[in-house]
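Form P-L/3: holo structure prediction, ligand flavin-adenine dinucleotide.
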Amino acid sequence: MSSEQMRDLNEYDVLVVGAGLAGYAAAISASECGASVLLLEKMHTYGGSTAWSGGAFCFADTEDQAAAGIKDCDALLRMDLTRGGEEKSNPELIDLYLTRQREIYRWLKGLGVTFTPPVLSPGQSVPRSHGASPRVLLDLLHEHFLRQAHCRYIAGADVLGVERDGEGVARILRVCISGETNTLAARRAVVIATGGFSRSQDLFKRYAPWLENAKRMGGEGATGDGLKMGIALGGDITDFDYLEGSFGAILPNYPSPKAWSENDTTLMHAEYSGAIVLNKLGRRFVNESQSYRKLGAICLKQPGAVAFQLFDQSVMDTSRSEPVTRNFKAAFDRNLIHRANSIREAAQIMGLPADVVEAEVAEYNRHIEYGEEPAFGRNSLLNGEGKPFPLVNAPFYIYACTTGISSTLAGLVANGRMALLDTYGDEVPGVFLAGEVVGGFHGPISVSGTALSKAAIFGKTAGENAARFSTSVNAGL
Ligand SMILES: Cc1cc2nc3c(=O)[nH]c(=O)nc-3n(C[C@H](O)[C@H](O)[C@H](O)COP(=O)(O)OP(=O)(O)OC[C@H]3O[C@@H](n4cnc5c(N)ncnc54)[C@H](O)[C@@H]3O)c2cc1C
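OUTPUT (holo model):
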C-alpha cells in the first residue's frame, strides 16, 4: 500500500477491528450515527466464528414467537439469564441485553434476515432460539455496510496492537497490511470486535488446561488478539474460571485415528430431540437433557473423550433447516451421520460392543416408555420439556462426537456503554468492545443463543458510543 493510500486510511472517525457479527453491527451503527468507518479484518474474508455458528439467536417476546403461539417476556428472559449466570453476570450487561434485544431482532429482520420458528434450547424457559443462516446474515450485513457513505472494508488487515495518542486516548492501531506494518489513527475511537480465543493453544494452556482435549471450533482468526490488546492497555479480564466446552462437536471420520481436523466445525444436538448418548464401552453415562456445557465437561472424562449419539427415524423426522444444530438431514447428506437397519449394525459401524449397546437401548426403551429411566433420571428432552420416547422406529442413526470449544465466554471487562474498563473500573478512553471479546455476561452456564444476540446487541452499542466519543472527550474526559 502506498504512503498516500495509508494516509487516506487515517481519515476515518471510527476504526472497527474484526468483521464478524459484532464488528458489522458496530461498523453499521457507527456509520448510522454519522461517523466514517474503516472495518479491518485480518483473514482473507469476513465472518469469523459467526460464519461457523449454528445461527441460533436468543430473543424474547418476538413476532416469531407470537406466530408460533409462544408466550414470553423480558422478565422471564431476565430470570433465565440471571439463573444461568448463577447471579454472577455483570448486571449492566444483562440490562443492556434486555433493553435492546427486541430492537436488534427487528433490526436484523429489517436487513432481510429471516428466522425459523423458535426452538427450545438449554437455559431457556420457553422456545427462544430463532434460527438464521449465518452466511446469509453476514452477506446481508456486509452489503449493507458497503452501501453506507464514507465506509470502507479491508480484508487481510491484521491489527497488531492499540496505542494511546498524545491526549492519552487509545485510538492508534498498529496494523499489518500486505506484509507492511503501519499505524492508523482514528479521529474518534476504536472498536475491538476480534471474537474469542478458541484457536489459541497458549491462552487455553494458561487459562483452561482442563479443556486441552477439546476440539477447537471457532473461526481461524479466533486467537485472542483483542484480549491481548485490551490487557496491554490495562484492561481488566473476567470469567476465566467458567471456561467450558460445548458437547456435540461431530467427529466426521471416526473411528479413523484422524477423526477430525481444525476445519470441521459442525455441532449437532440430536440429544435434545430424543437421541441417547453412549460412550466407547457402549454404555449411557449421562442424563442427556442437561445443558450442552454440562454434557461437554462430562464427555471429556469418558474414555477417549468421545461419545456416540444413537437415534431412530422418529428423531430424524424432527430435522429442520435452522438452527443447523438440529439439521440432521443435512448432516446425514454430508455423511456426518450414519444410517443402519438395526441397533446392532449402528453399534458395529462405530466399533462399539454390539451386545452391550443392544442391551443398553432395550433397558432405556423399557423405562422411558413409562416416563423416567432410573439410571440417570432422564425424564425430558431438554429443560424439563418434551417427553423422551423409546428408540424403536428403524432405520437407526449414529454419529461420533466430542466436546468442542465453539466460543470462549470469558474476556475483557466492559460497562453498559461497551467501553473497556481497566482494573480500577475506569474507562480506557477511546476503546469500545463488542461480541465474544467481552467477558462478564454469561457467568458459569450460558443461555443458548445469547452469544450471537450479544454480538449484535453489544456491537450496535459499541458502534454508537464510538461514533459519539469525540463529544464525550470534549465534554470533560
Ligand atoms: C461451531 C459454532 C457454533 C456456534 N453456534 C452458536 C449459536 O448457534 N448461537 C450462538 O449464540 N452462538 C454460537 N456460537 C458462538 C458465536 O458464533 C460467537 O460467539 C459469535 O459469532 C462471535 O461473534 P464476534 O463478532 O464477536 O466474533 P467473530 O465472528 O469471531 O468475528 C471476529 C472477527 O475478528 C477477526 N479478527 C481477530 N483478530 C483480528 C485482528 N488482530 N485484526 C483484524 N481482525 C481480527 C477474526 O478473523 C473474525 O473475523 C457458535 C460458535 C461456533 C464456532
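COMMENT: The CA atoms of residues 145 and 230 lie 26 Å apart.
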